[in-house]
Structure prediction request, 249 residues.
Amino acid sequence: MTSWLGRRLVELDEVESTNDEAARLAADGAEHGTVVVALAQTSGRGRLGRSWYSPPGESLYLSCVLRPPLAPEALPPVTLAAGIAVAEAAAGRAPRARVQWPNDVVVDGRKLAGVLSEVTTRSGKVESAVVGIGLNVNVDRFPPDLGRPATSLRLETGRLHALDEVRAELLDRLEIWLDDFFREGMPAVARGWRVWGGMAGARVRVDLGAGRELVGTAGDLASDGGLEVVDDAGRLTVVRAGDVTRVAL
Ligand code: BT5
Prediction:
């Protein structure tokens, strides 16, 4: 049971995107902890205009309206905090679920869930943040053009999972990690990363955008939530935006 997250729960059959719906509610004054959940999304979104495969009734699509007591520049690690909560919740069913920086939860390199955080500021202050989570639950086949390997709780366990149970477990963990993050900041995220971060010591390729990439070994989280990567010349780069994939050795 949560105390504030999902106390107002808006359950919808179909939306374009639960993040868009949550942002609309936030603009209308929805309180901290309002959660929008839909059975289907017709335009589920990832980052950078990518789409999120959202078959009706098979997975969790939910978005939380948050009004955190933080400055805009302190907010980006909320994505990691949410990912940690997703990994911890999913691990009860898929024990090898881990967070892949910055916003994925993967099982052995296959993407189980993604987090999309969006912030609205006014006069330099956070007005609201929307943290959206897509978690693949009962999908048994993904479209071949997804672009990268994906998985679901069903594929990991060979059985179906009740969406409302998975949702309740997820909201429980999410409330705990968000509370810790809002109270303590990065130390809470660093603590979660030590348990649920699946990248330390891994050889990674970072797509920095604009055709630039970095190959190296992933290390710890930097103090602002960036990912430390050491290249083969021993140079340390803190990656603050980009897509990180593991490279096979
Ligand atoms: C994400 O983006 O991983 C964030 C996904 C957030 C989705 C939730 S659903 C509820 C809420 N409402 C929304 O509209 N969005 C949020 P990104 O890191 O950009 O990854 C997107 C990439 O993941 C795509 O380009 C595909 O390669 C892959 N992908 C798409 N759908 C997937 C799925 N269902 N499972 C695994 N991978 C997927």
Notes: The CA atoms of residues 85 and 174 lie 5 Å apart. The chain has a mean pLDDT of 95.
